[in-house]
Amino acid sequence: MSELRPVSPIQRPESARPREAPPPEVEPPSPQELLAIERHLVVLPTFEGATVEGDAELGVTFVRGPGTEPDMSYAAMLRWSVEAWPSRLTALS
Questions:
Q1: For residue range 8-51, what is the model confidence (pLDDT) as tens digits?
Q2: Which residues of 33-54 are buried (b: 16+ CB within 10 A; e: fewer)?
Q3: Residue 29 burial by Cβ neighbours in a 10 Å radius (0-12, 13-18, 19+)
Q4: 83 lies in a domain?
Q5: Rounded to whole angstroms, how far apart are CA atoms 35 and 37?
């Protein structure tokens, strides 16, 4: 055996809670909560200096980085129907 590998397998400490109980049942997030989570994730880049602006005509939210780097600017929270997405994508491009 290598000297980096422990001699015995790692064991749970005596003070750890038992694993016998099943995990608690949790309700899935509601549509409103999912939207709030999505909005929260979209505005996080503002802490790094980005701006976040909604564009109702295109149905997107633009996140624009503080510099000229292309990886910091993108469209988020797309709200396109199945029929309209090809034309909306062309307009966005």
A1: 777 878 888 777 778 789 999 999 999 999 999 999 989 988 89
A2: eeeeeeeeebeebeeeebebee
A3: exposed
A4: yes
A5: 5
State both tokens at 49: 């200096």
Residue 32 resides in a domain:
no
What is the percent of the chain where pLDDT is above 70? 89
**pTM of this prediction?**
0.63
pLDDT at residue 38, as a whole number: 94
The residues near 24 (Cβ < 8 Å, ≥ 6 apart) are: none
Domain that holds residue 78: 49-93
| Residue 27 belongs to some domain of the structure | no
Task: Tell me, yes or no, whether 6 lies in a domain.
Answer: no
